Every structure is written in C-alpha cells, then in structure tokens.
Amino acid sequence: MSIDSTAEFEAFYAATFRDVQAFVRRRAHPMLVEEILSETYLVAWRRRADVPAEARAWLFTVARNQMLSAHKGVRRQRDLHVRLSAEPAPQQVEDDAIGVIERLTLQQAWNTLGAGDQEVLALALFEELDAPRAAQVLGCSRTAYAMRLSRARRRLGTALQARAETPTPVTSPTNRVRTTP
Questions:
Q1: Which of 119, 117, 99, 116 is nearest to 156 (CA)?
Q2: Which of 13, 120, 163, 178 has the most CB atoms around its CB within 10 Å?
C-alpha cells in the first residue's frame, strides 16, 4: 500500500490509531504514550511509500521499536511489560462479584509471567495477530513465535491453576480493625 497524499495518510491514521494506541498503552509508561505514538506515525509518514497492505502489524513493529529505542537496560523491559489492568473491564464484569474475582485471579496470574511471556500472549490475545504477523512484530520466525506462545500459554495456565488453589482473602465490615480518633 503506497500512501500518496495527505488525505490518504489521514484515512490510514484514522483507521489504525486506536489499535496502535491500545498496543502502546498496554506496554509503555503513561507519560510516554503520546511521544511513542507521535514517533510511530512520524516513521509511518516518512516511510509512507513502504507501508505494507497489512499495516497493523507493521505499525506495531514500529511502535515496539520506538519503545525499545526510548529506553535502555532494565527500563526497556519495564516499558514493554504488558499491563493487563490498563484496559478497563466491561461494566457487567465490574458489577458481578464473581467476574471481579476471576479478573483479579487472572491479573495475579498474569503478573507472575515474565515480560516476554506477557508480550507474546498480548500479541495473540489483545492485538489478535496471527502467527506470521506476531512473529514480524517480535522479529523472529513464525515457528519461534509459535513455540514461545505455546510455552507462555502453558505458564499462564499453571499460574492460573496455582491462583485457583489459593483462596482470595475477602475483608468484610465485621472483621475490619476500627480505630478511634
């Protein structure tokens, strides 16, 4: 896909922005999101003649590279850490106590995973990328991606199983410690 005019780029931007924004928000520090998005679309504008027909995975790759270049060492991993809680839960889940407990269990299990496992799962679950496109984003082969995804799913399943076997503490009004002024 070659973007030849400002109007075509605006349409491209409008069609892709929400997905790229969600991708970046799940990974980057909130104060860096706008900068990373700006840099991502600046690269897209400069390379508009090179944008592939399936631009979503290409933009995820550009955004990921922007995050990686923004930080070094330990900060690099922290910024690529996928924040499961960054996406608000649907209202019906928030109103449903069982749904809230399930979400907390999932979040606790998710937080036990390493950044690599979270990233490979997020590409499949949140970004809904197929294996070739997810592998493109990660810069690895489709086979390597499939193996990483399989291992990450297994580790998440194990973590969920462990969380399910651990009771969730519930605080009721009767067992709260009361302090007097």
A1: 117
A2: 120
Is 51:90 a contact under the CB 8 Å cutoff? no
Chain-centre distance for alpha carbon 125: 9
Q: 66 and 20 in contact (C-beta within 8 Å)?
A: no
Name the nearest CA neighbour of 44 among 56, 30, 28, 31: 56
> In a structure prediction context, what are the per-residue pLDDT tens digits for the chain, which is 181 residues long?
778 888 999 999 999 999 999 999 988 888 889 989 999 999 999 998 888 988 999 999 999 988 887 765 445 455 555 665 555 555 544 455 566 667 777 888 888 888 889 989 988 888 888 999 999 989 999 999 999 999 999 998 898 888 777 665 554 444 444 444 4
